[in-house]
Amino acid sequence: MIVLLDIVREKFQGLCFLAGALLFLSLTGCAQNPVSGSHDFVMLSEDSEIAQGRTNHPKIIAQYGRYDNEVLQAYVQSVGERLAVESHRENLIYRFTVLDSPVINAFALPGGYIYITRGLMAYLSSEAELAAVLGHEIGHVTARHGVRQQSAAQAAGLGYVLGSILFPELREGPSQDAFNMMSGALLSGYGREHELESDGLGAEYLARAGYEPKAMIDVIRVLKAQETFAAEEAKKQGREVQGYHGLFASHPDNDTRLHEVVDTAEKFSKGRQNQVLRRAYLAQINGMVFGDSEKQGIRSGRHFYHLAMDFTVGFPVAWQVNNQPDSLQAVSAGGQAFIEMRAIDINHKLSPQEFIKQRLKFDKLRSGQSLSVNGLDAYTSLATLSDKPLRISVIYLRDRAFVFFSGVKNTKDFARFDIDFLNTVKSFHTLGKAEQKLAKAQKIEIVTVKKQDNYAGWAIKSRISNSPLLQLKLLNGHYPSGELQTGQLAKRVK
What we know:
This protein is of the alpha+beta class. It has 16 helices and 18 strands.
């Protein structure tokens, strides 16, 4: 395999050169980089790049939703424009959008379309930190990273096509696998360099705009704390962690290269006092939605409330509850057991039992029973899926069937958890008047810490699902062991 890799490496390098040369000749794919001034191999003109962003912008809004707060949107746009005018492509019109998503993320489309989620904004603590995130994303646009990455990928693909014609031995399975490995590694490394370059550009734009460039490192500390917390939460549920994209989160806050690019940016400050603007930022996010949106339903402790669909359901104590776009999931400690609930339209006049057999395609049911769940028609039974027992329950509410799939990792644990499965199904009911208030979105509240305040007390009163104590510490930059300080401004969730 080592010999094979050497052969492929040699041919790969030649083919990439050949592919680049052919593409250059046929597409004149060489353009001056706005940042470095050097010439990059790219396959999109600036007009095409902008068109790509313009075309995909509505798709991003459709997928995530635009956060419905025009004051906050205008604030983020103003911070972004303050940076953009100092960038290497100040001729572009930049659009900065806050997305209505609890996911912690920010990203850019080619052509100046930049996005940050309210989920990420909740954990930032100053305008300088917001500017650091936006500046990093502006860096991707100014250096044309998206376009360059696309061009490299297309060149690698063309290189293999040419190679398979010129060198028949590359058509064989092992050679193709090795080629794919090498081209993937090349593009992956190229991407990591882009992320570091964006850190440096973001820090430069911060300094030029009068912000503290070290805010770039502060943001990375926020993201690293989130990464650690997410890993611990995933471990509790027996699943893999998903985090913020790119090197911006992956390198440590004491990374030598990161500090070098941030220190280099200091020269652009021109002796000014760099702004942080913590109080101004906190005033802007006061009242911002935290966690689930009302459209997706609200988790509150171990309960879930959905105002538009008019129902609530309660899960077992100490289970982790995850609200996904198309389902509601609860997982026991260590991921030993799970419950997944989905809402499916009813199109034919079937009984809940017939619905399981005809719509869900489970015809081998056992130990089935009809139920009246708080006045609603329901049916529950056992089935087998992938040689493991599964409890399937269906509750009818108006024109929807609420389907519960409940199972375990180890078959021997099924009987122990089955009572939790049934109790969850039986907890389902339409919202009472008092519960309608609980179906309202939770919001960030900025308060001045009093002497008697502490995270433990706030957590007890909080409606936050899944580790409220640690999430409150994360919100205020005190994860994992910090504490509130009397007189400081702090975020809590109401």
